[in-house]
Amino acid sequence: MNARVVGRVLGVAILAGTALLTAYALYVSQRRPLTDDASVRANLIGIAPHVSGPLTELHVVDNQAVHDGDLLFVVDPRPYATRLAQAEAELKLVEREIDAQRNEIAAARSTLRERQAEYGYADDYLRRVAPLLAREFVTADAVEEARTRRHTALAALFRSREELQRATNLLAEYGTFNARRDAAEARVRAARLDFDYCRVTAPFDGYVTNLNIAVGNYATEGRDVFALVDGRSWYVIGNFRETYLRNIRPGTRAEVYVLNYPQRRFRGEVQGIGWAVQQPDGPTSGLLPPVQPALNWVRLAQRFPVRVRLIDPPRDLPLRIGQTAAVTVFGSP
């Protein structure tokens, strides 16, 4: 009898303990969501030249660590050096032409002043001579000759004004701005920029990856030569079930475990939660992250990617894109 009672008590205790443990596990899973469907990520930047040409120098090898400003490779600079020299020579020629045009303007102004003086004299002479014709102090031919001189002086004055205007227009100068010189200087800057682009340097600290070229390969403008892993910022993408998202917010503290380093914890902070994922029965879109379900025969809660930024990861523990990880989020901040 006593054994039967003890057995029943133990059974009830076991059931109660199981229920309590289940409730506690559910509570913890909601307050501290955990996923092992996670991987280490970093930004991957394609390194492409701004100019085209054969590679004459290659200063890196695959998987090499590089620092900001390190020389990666050099595109043949000779064609661009020639264009730069040509643009600089054209600039000097334009400056000489501008000086000559200014001299022409000065000469045109001097001529205009002479024509103004000649017209003023002819006009004044006609004004003095014309009244004398009525008193027969001068002949009609003298008056007509004075009138012709004034007309000729006026026409010459108009021509001088037009010549000055034409010379001023050819100078193409407005205040301190000269269109011809500035256009030539812009061509020099563009040529120098292309020449400088022949030397491609690392834009940040990172790691060379997918390098399959050698000196002599032809590099095309805007086409990636290799990729550079951005070593400045590492993060983890963890796929959490949608039922956990209510307790995950940007700024939430997180802990990350990387499979390579099972004894170490990485501090993290939630940056954001994905707003959309690719649906398996929907239209294909390369803009949305695909999150595949673990089972196909049961209706599972959808999982959404949560981005967790790693805070000051130890330098003695190198990280790589694609490493398997587990993420625990410690509730709302």
Are there runs of 5+ residues with pLDDT below 50, and where?
A: 23-29
- Write down the CATH class of the largest domain: Mainly Beta
Number of strands: 14
Going by helix content, strand content and strand pairing, the class is alpha+beta
Strand content: 25-35%
Please report the distance between the alpha carbons of the first and last residues.
55 Å
Count of discrete alpha- or pi-helical segments spanning 4 or more residues: 4
Q: Please give the largest β-sheet.
A: 6 strands, antiparallel, barrel
**Helical content, roughly?**
25-40%
Assembly of the depicted chains: single chain
Keywords:
single chain; 333 residues; alpha+beta; Elongation Factor Tu (Ef-tu), domain 3; OB fold (Dihydrolipoamide Acetyltransferase, E2P); Helix Hairpins; 3 domains; 6-stranded antiparallel beta barrel; 4-stranded antiparallel sheet; 4 helices; 14 strands; 40% helix; elongated
Short recap of the structure:
About 2% of the residues have low confidence.
